[in-house]
Design a protein that fits this description.
It is found in: Cytoplasm. By secondary structure, this protein is of the alpha/beta class. It is about 35% helix and about 20% strand. It folds into 3 domains: about 70 residues, MurE/MurF, N-terminal domain (Udp-n-acetylmuramoylalanyl-d-glutamate--2,6- Diaminopimelate Ligase, Chain: A, domain 1, 3-Layer(aba) Sandwich), CATH 3.40.1390.10; about 200 residues, Mur-like, catalytic domain (UDP-N-acetylmuramoyl-L-alanine:D-glutamate ligase), CATH 3.40.1190; about 130 residues, Mur ligase, C-terminal domain (Protein-Tyrosine Phosphatase, Chain A), CATH 3.90.190.
């Protein structure tokens, strides 16, 4: 079946689904394959649950006109998304980076939503499947799309750009994330800069944070919409005021008080302001959107449990994000500061060095008690007088004592695989 015909079938459907557990009536179901499953085998089940059409790539599961046989389901999903993006013809803003992608995306979406009908990446569906699903969730009512792009290998951002075809782009930063896949920090910079490469080759524009020297160096040939703290260098000037504990800043005549902790979130907020300014969102609405945004999903959440105040930043971690989080935490005013840190993943041969660097930083900071979880942290050398190490969460759970956290400010941070949000469950059990 031709792609334009598949697109007509898609327009007849209410939404797209790739998981039979989430089938809704009159959806378009893509029978994707995974390491441990074959979506083709769920064809009958998807039909029984109400799917309007099913896209398959195994003719053994063909039923009737409701099943659409293609050569490869994943490629069809990606090609259909690119076709639909062209069909809509709306401005697409894409962003990537080592840290802060999702927070920045949500802030940009909040600001633009004050004036436009927007569709943005849900959660962190930012890979070769998530980006197509985001594009296919856009409708004729969507005026601007905001697409987050993630990658852990060279070439992935370039591939996603060919699907999303962004008109504008932003890179949050270049940090020590996915070093194993990228082969080091230079690989990270090259991989993330594939977004710049696409925008340059298609004569599109980027939002440039001039406070980031790497971004400045990488964008000398690209059309830029510049923002930063130095008025003489930027089209849009935003001034940092403080982060005690929440980021406060000045933009035009507006003083904006956010609900985001850490000076590192200043750049994320600034990017959203710059995008809003460019798309002519009124200053008062930009202020409303930023001040109304509250972080969730284990990203810098502030949680109070009795006498304990917790900064839950357990969605993910890498050496760069760990460093800024610890430095910010050390600067907080509190009489008893405790950290609970979990291993950082996907660091390859750099794992031992980077975990030791985190421990060395902890030794030097104003932190009263440190708890380290995971095999990598257990290989480090630590001189902190009140540091404890556990090889697993289970070992920590068995030794856990709620009283040790009373009247404390606690930072919880680790890679997604450590699932350190489980610490909250321990508090609830006490």
């Amino acid at each position: 079946m031709e792609l334009n015909t598949i697109h007509q079938r898609f327009l007849e459907c209410k939404n797209v689904c790739t998981d039979t557990r989430k089938i809704t009536k009159d959806c378009l179901f893509f029978a994707l394959k995974g390491d441990n499953f074959d979506g083709n085998t769920f064809t009958q089940q998807a039909l029984e649950k109400g799917a309007k059409y099913i896209i398959i790539d195994n003719d053994a599961y063909y039923k009737d006109s409701q099943t659409i046989l293609v050569e490869d389901v994943l490629s069809t999903l990606q090609n259909l998304a690119a076709y639909h993006r062209d069909y809509l013809g709306i401005p697409i803003i894409s962003l990537t980076g080592s840290n802060g992608k999702t927070t920045t995306k949500e802030l940009i979406n909040a600001v633009l939503s004050e004036k436009y009908q927007t569709t943005a990446t849900i959660g962190n569906l930012n890979n070769h499947i998530g980006v197509p699903l985001t594009l296919l969730s856009m409708t004729k009512d969507t005026e601007i799309g905001v697409v987050e792009m993630g990658a852990n290998h060279l070439g992935e951002i370039a591939f996603l750009c060919e699907i999303a075809k962004p008109d504008y782009g932003y890179i949050t930063n270049f940090g020590k994330a996915h070093l194993e896949g990228f082969g080091g920090i230079e690989g990270v910079i090259k991989g993330k800069s594939e977004l710049y490469d696409y925008l340059l080759s298609h004569d599109k524009q980027i939002f440039l944070n001039t406070d980031d020297t790497i971004q400045v160096a990488k964008t000398k040939s690209v059309k830029t919409i510049s923002f930063g703290q130095k008025e003489e260098k930027n089209q849009i000037t935003i001034q940092f005021i403080n982060a005690n504990p929440f980021v406060k800043l000045q933009y035009h005549d507006e003083t904006i008080s956010s609900h985001l902790i850490g000076a590192y979130n200043f750049n994320n907020i600034s990017a959203a302001i710059a995008v809003g300014n460019y798309f002519k969102v009124p200053d008062s609405n930009i202020k409303k959107a930023i001040e109304g945004y509250t972080p969730a999903n284990n990203r810098s959440q502030i949680i109070k449990n009795g006498s304990t105040e917790i900064i839950l930043d357990a969605y993910n971690a890498n050496p760069s994000s760990m460093k800024v989080a610890l430095e910010n935490f050390s600067n907080q005013e509190h009489r008893n500061k405790i950290i609970i840190l979990g291993d950082m993943f996907e660091l390859g041969t750099e794992a031992e060095k980077e975990h030791q660097a985190v421990v060395d930083l902890v030794n030097a900071l104003n932190i009263d008690k440190a708890v380290f979880l995971g095999e990598n942290f257990n290989k480090t050398t630590c001189i902190h007088p009140k540091a404890t190490f556990y090889t697993s969460f289970q070992a920590f759970k068995e030794a856990f004592n709620l009283e040790s956290l009373n009247y404390s400010l606690v930072l919880i941070k680790g890679s997604r695989g450590m699932a350190l949000e489980r610490v909250l469950g321990l508090l609830d059990e006490q």
